[in-house]
Amino acid sequence: MAVRLSILVPTRNEADNVAPLLARIDGCIERTGCEVIFVDDSDDATAQRIASAAERAAVEVVLIAREPGARVGGLGGAVVEGARAARGEWLCVMDGDLQHPPELIPVLLARAGEAGADLVLASRLAPGGSVAIMGGVRAALSRTLAWATARLFPERCAGVSDPMSGFFVVRRDALPLDRLRPDGFKILLEILVTSPDLRVAEVPFRFDARHAGRSKAGLREAVRLARTLARLGLGSRAGRPELRERS
Fold this sequence. Notes:
Blueprint: E1 5-11, H1 18-28, E2 34-40, H2 46-56, E3 60-65, H3 74-85, E4 90-93, H4 105-115, E5 119-123, H5 136-152, E6 168-171, H6 187-194, E7 200-204, H7 219-237
Parallel strand pairs: 1-2, 1-4, 2-3, 5-7
Antiparallel strand pairs: 4-6, 5-6
């Protein structure tokens, strides 16, 4: 059977979240023509919980468990590995902690059809979106990063309110997997910068509370983000062909 949608979920120590996530996906996604691919970098029982939940799920579930020595690129590397294994015409990238509501996935796909877009991101910062659940400091940081990124890459991020979003759908054929060098959480930014010809649209959404477990954000991811911004910025100024301006 042809697969229209592959949902890519990178996980790291999300044992208590994967079953509720699959249940909600089952409740809102057409069961035929969809697969959910977990790319797991966990040290806890997440892989076992995924296997158990898959037995009850209506959608097809694929588990890619990466060994410690193969966990290259962090979350972004897991997304790229999942994309290489995916069969869907469309890929949906989302977190495994339920801060990204699965019920929005059909809305993102519908928006892609309406706008003729290659990529539709769920934006916390667009009118109608919200980062209130983060608290004042993290919300202000998200807005500041979006502002700074838009000025660092004005052509690549034109019309994109939330280039740091981790929740989006993208047409598989439009994703330049061979160009990507993921390093940490912010895979969307790298896609936007390395693919200036993508037709991009947005849907606002409210960033939900984490269902269980602890956030993986911290100093290490901040260092990775700084490294990514420097690498992409230098590449852009050097005029690499894959970083040409969006027409």
